[in-house]
Specification:
Two copies of one chain form a homodimer. Chain A is built from twelve helices and 20 strands. By secondary structure, the first copy, chain A, is an alpha/beta fold. Chain A folds into two domains: 32-229, TIM Barrel (Alpha-Beta Barrel), CATH 3.20.20.10; 242-358, D-serine dehydratase-like domain (Lyase, Ornithine Decarboxylase, Chain A, domain 1). In chain A, the strands form four sheets. In chain A, strands 2, 3, 4, 5, 6, 7, 8, 9 and 10 form a nine-stranded parallel sheet that branches. In chain A, strands 1, 11, 12, 15, 16, 17 and 18 form a seven-stranded antiparallel sheet that branches. In chain A, strands 13-14 form a two-stranded antiparallel sheet. At the A-B interface, helix 5, strand 11 and helix 12 of A face helix 5, strand 11 and helix 12 of B.
């Protein structure tokens, strides 16, 4: 049993490796490329497990994160974030080292690439297919044509369309995910035909579609990332089972309130992040479910127990009378996260059951220039 | 004008110093000790500005953070977090170096102190006066007496009661804060008389009460911390004016959606944190307000503009047609945070308008043992 004294993000390697293997196999079976998003784990060590499954191209969410993985020998990197003109010099340096793919939506971005990035990069135009976060509307072919034409006059190459079906994360079940997936894929299929002269590729970003869809016709590549760990949000959507969650935050118990059947834990918003979801089992707003640590894994989620609230370093856990009777200050409990990407990012490091530490990129916290 | 290329937490030193000076003056005027909570800024450099105002005792939220400030020469430190029995050895090491005050609510904590901490520490019993986060209920004098009696048989010393009036953060205005303050202070006053034989001190934790109350009768010390930066939550409560907010997150603009009058910014949940509030001006759920950077400060919040949603690294900013027309990808805008403590923690570093970097404690992200 590894010794826990402070909030510690436990990683079950067996589960993470199984999730990776399963998604890699699915991609092969459907003849679609897996270009996994590394913003979830942000770890060179975990990246190696993807390599073992034949993955050679990866996705990141920032220029700095691209640099982190380039240093680890990754040669094909997609920065799946709108090109940040202010970092164009760093992008140019990176393009000289690796085979870089970037996302754009505006003429200013094409001009920055043309003026400052000598080595050619591949360019995906981001399309908004209903998520309403980022991307050009799919029904504005003139704007899209303008960007493609602008790119044609540069040293860079238009590669296709990227879309993040982020609205699948709000789906209630697999059927809703399937409906969103097909509705969002349609305009991309239309673009593929409308711009057939450019032979555009189609790149998708979300984990629910990648996990649940059984038909990737017309899709070139999947950039999903969350599936490496999964989390309670994905369980609720139906993308995975609770047993597929590969990370749990170990938290010391520091107090107990018998009146309200609550535990106070050392583990707050700076550890779990403040992501929450309306939990279906309890009907309450939850920041995580509770598990018991078993030395080399953890138990199933304890029924009726959940993280009721989080402040900076405190967590308040609602428990049942049975659980309350079992636990005292000085014990350690585990929390299954609502959103594993955010929890991994705030914790910036993992520990496996052998007690080893695994790296997590953290440089973005300290602006470089 | 300092060069921004990535999300950067700007700190206006003049405002932070003014906030510190003003709270220190208020405490002196009311004859109450200011033991400021350093979990908000977590910075040695900013800690120095408190020293200049005569502050000699400080508050932190973790043992590791106590170590960080002990290394900087702070000799009187309160860890305002329920004593974590699993860190008792580190607490013992710390107690040998500085004058330590700890918080307890359970007999197990007293026993851990007795067995493992040789040097005497001062002990505050945490009382729940309505916030329902942590603390013994004020109306359970038997439990409190039991702890005091247990402590009397140890090398440690019962010092008094600590209560965090966290429910003031949900107050709609200053009048509500005053009502909560007086309602929550009453049971502490009762305890002070009930346990008069022990001459208990009364310690309070929240910023709204410290900012708004004009009567600290019976109060020994204020442990507020947020006031150094303030934020939109405190503006909405009435603890400060918008002009008192000392930090803004500078974010590159990376996209623009004219249809929905939105900007896409490089600045997400890993930068601002996912704290939100229902904004009174717009009636919408907001993750921050928008300001324009002016080189040595920032503008007032732009009316009708706010951060509508955050994902891991993206922020979506709702703007007015006027603002939309002024801003293009490659520009930088500022975000006033909803909760400055959380934003400072996720960013883990500041930059002032001279371009200097200021430290922020960050070790809690990487469990030590």
């Amino acid at each position: 049993m590894i010794k826990i004294t402070r909030p510690t993000l436990l990683l079950d390697e067996t589960i993470a490796r199984r999730n990776i293997k399963s998604m890699a196999a699915k991609a092969r079976q459907h003849n679609v490329e897996l270009i996994p998003h590394f913003k979830t784990h942000q770890s060179k060590r975990i990246g190696g497990w993807f390599r073992e499954q034949g993955v050679s191209a990866i996705t990141v969410s920032s220029v700095a994160m691209a640099g982190y993985f380039a240093d680890d020998g990754w040669q094909k990197i997609t920065i799946a974030f709108p090109l940040n003109i202010l970092e164009i010099k760093k992008i140019a340096e990176l393009a000289a080292k690796v085979e870089l793919t970037v996302l754009i939506t505006a003429p200013e971005q094409v001009r920055a690439l043309q003026e400052h990035v000598e080595v050619f990069v591949k360019v995906l135009i981001e399309i908004d297919t209903g998520d309403h976060r980022s991307g050009l509307p799919a029904n504005e072919p003139q704007q899209i044509r303008q960007l493609i034409d602008l790119l044609a006059g540069t040293q860079h190459r238009f590669k296709g369309f990227y879309s993040h079906f982020g609205h699948t994360y709000k789906a209630a079940n697999g059927r809703e995910v399937a409906a969103i997936y097909h509705a969002a894929l349609q305009p991309l299929t239309d673009l593929r035909f409308g711009f057939a002269d450019t032979h555009p590729e189609i790149h998708l970003g979300d984990t629910p579609s990648a996990s649940l869809s059984k038909d990737f016709t017309g899709v070139t590549a999947l950039h999903a990332g969350n599936f490496v760990f999964y989390d309670l949000t994905q369980v609720q959507i139906g993308s995975c089972r609770e047993e597929d969650i590969a990370v749990a935050l170990a938290c010391p118990v520091v107090g107990k309130n018998s009146h309200r059947q609550e535990l106070v834990i050392y583990g707050g918003g700076i550890h779990l992040s403040k992501e929450s979801l309306p939990d279906r089992e309890t009907g309450k707003h939850s920041y995580g479910k509770i598990v018991l640590l078993t030395g080399d894994h953890w138990s199933g989620a304890l029924p009726g127990c959940y993280v009721r609230s989080l402040s900076q370093e405190h967590g308040i856990v609602q428990v049942t009378p049975d659980v309350l009777a079992q636990i005292t200050p000085g014990d350690v409990i585990g929390i299954l996260p609502v959103h594993a990407c955010m929890t991994a990012d705030t914790m910036a490091g993992y520990r496996n059951f052998k007690g080893e530490k695994l790296d997590h990129f953290n440089a973005c916290r300290w602006p470089a220039g």
